[in-house]
């Protein structure tokens, strides 16, 4: 489910999500993000921003057929070939390989699209959710086993909501702060 995680992470680098600022403002930031996902490249900032908007539109969908169609279009954009490769335990798995001339944005489209399709088929459209934080416009795919995730970035949005709730309780009970 790493590919679905990449899709969530990329979408939530957009301005307006948690920090408010664009987390992929330039080639240097993009190179770091790409490196974290086993890719390289930094020249593609505008194309990646455009892809980010398209991927966001996919994660905003809540109907399984709509998600399937939109994610398939993303996969088609970067797909070169599909083949069987052994995983670390020697079991064969289908692998989607990017086209030889695929740009970084095309490769991210392929990974994100495959991740969305895999999560949709394994977990269902109800795992596509809005962040529960009042101050965050993020979205995410919940790939956790229990499926009870509420925040796009649990460490950030979840804590912030907890802090806000704690302060509100203190105020309500007249406690000193
Ligand atoms: Zn959030």
Provide structural commentary.
It is a single chain. It contains six helices and four strands. The chain has helices at 2-11, 27-36, 45-59, 64-78, 104-123, 154-172; strands spanning 79-86, 92-98, 128-130, 139-141. The model has no long low-confidence stretch (mean pLDDT 89). The protein has one domain (2-172): Jann2411-like domain (Jann2411-like fold). Strands 1-2 form a two-stranded antiparallel sheet. Strands 3-4 form a two-stranded antiparallel ribbon. Helix 3 runs parallel beside helix 5. Helices cover 50% and strands 12% of the residues. The radius of gyration is 18 Å and the shape is globular. Residues 18, 131, 133, 136, 138, 151-153, 157 line the site of zinc ion. It holds the Pfam family zf-CGNR.
What is this entry, summarized?
This protein has 177 residues and is mostly helical. It has helices at 2-11, 27-36, 45-59, 64-78, 104-123, 154-172; strands spanning 79-86, 92-98, 128-130, 139-141. The strands form two sheets. It has a two-stranded antiparallel sheet with strand order 1-2.
Q: Globular, elongated, flat, extended or rod-shaped: what is the shape?
A: globular
Uncertain runs: none
Series of H and E elements: HHHHEEHEEH
How many distinct beta strands? 4
Query: How many domains make up the 3D coordinates?
Result: 1
Top CATH class: Mainly Alpha
- The CATH topology annotation reads as Jann2411-like fold
Instruction: Strand order, main sheet: write it out.
Output: 1-2
Protein name: CGNR zinc finger domain-containing protein
InterPro entries: ABATE, ABATE_dom_sf, Znf_CGNR
Domain Zinc finger CGNR: 127-170
Organism: Actinomycetospora rhizophila
């Amino acid at each position: 489910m790493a590919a679905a995680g990449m899709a969530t992470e990329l979408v939530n680098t957009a301005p307006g999500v948690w920090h408010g600022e664009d987390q992929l403002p330039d080639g240097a930031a993009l190179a770091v993000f790409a490196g974290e996902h086993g890719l390289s490249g930094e020249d593609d900032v505008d194309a990646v921003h455009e892809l980010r908007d398209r991927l966001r539109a996919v994660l905003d969908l809540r109907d399984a057929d709509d998600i399937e169609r939109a994610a398939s279009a993303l996969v088609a954009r970067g797909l070169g070939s599909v083949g069987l490769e052994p995983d670390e335990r020697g079991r064969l798995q289908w692998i989607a390989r990017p086209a030889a001339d695929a740009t970084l944005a095309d490769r991210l489209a392929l990974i994100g699209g495959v991740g969305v399709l895999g999560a949709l088929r394994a977990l269902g459209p109800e795992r596509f959710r809005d962040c529960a934080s009042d101050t965050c416009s993020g979205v995410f795919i919940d790939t956790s086993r229990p499926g009870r995730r509420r925040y796009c970035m649990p460490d950030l949005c979840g804590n912030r909501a907890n802090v806000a709730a704690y302060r509100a309780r203190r105020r309500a009970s007249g406690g000193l702060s």
